[in-house]
Known about the structure:
Blueprint: E1 4-11, H1 14-25, E2 28-31, E3 38-42, E4 53-58, E5 67-71, H2 75-84, E6 88-96, E7 100-106, E8 112-118
Parallel strand pairs: 1-4, 5-8
Antiparallel strand pairs: 1-5, 2-3, 3-4, 6-7, 7-8
Amino acid sequence: MATITHFQIPAEDIQRVKKFYQELFGWKIEKVPGDLQYYFIETTDADGTIGVGGGIMKRETPEEQITNFIGVSSINECCPKIVALGGKILQPKSPVVNWGYFAICCDTENNIFGLWEDDKDATM
């Protein structure tokens, strides 16, 4: 069964939102290595058990909101099912080099969600 594997928070000001979530929830937020302006978020529950992780990135469009990503074994197999069930593919399968692939989708009620497929061999 598929589950939420990651969430992504878009931000106008990455440092401001980083401070907000660190101080509000105590989340550990660290920049990924390299030039990419992306920050990983580590969450924990009240007992200290690691929860779903996330990320912060620069907002690309004004209407962009928090997106939950659901892990699937194959985006190529999942996308046709989404369309057949009345959903939409907003951004087709795209690589995150050496990490995997994602797609951005919309359900029948116009809720946006992402798909994530792990693949350490992902290329452009």
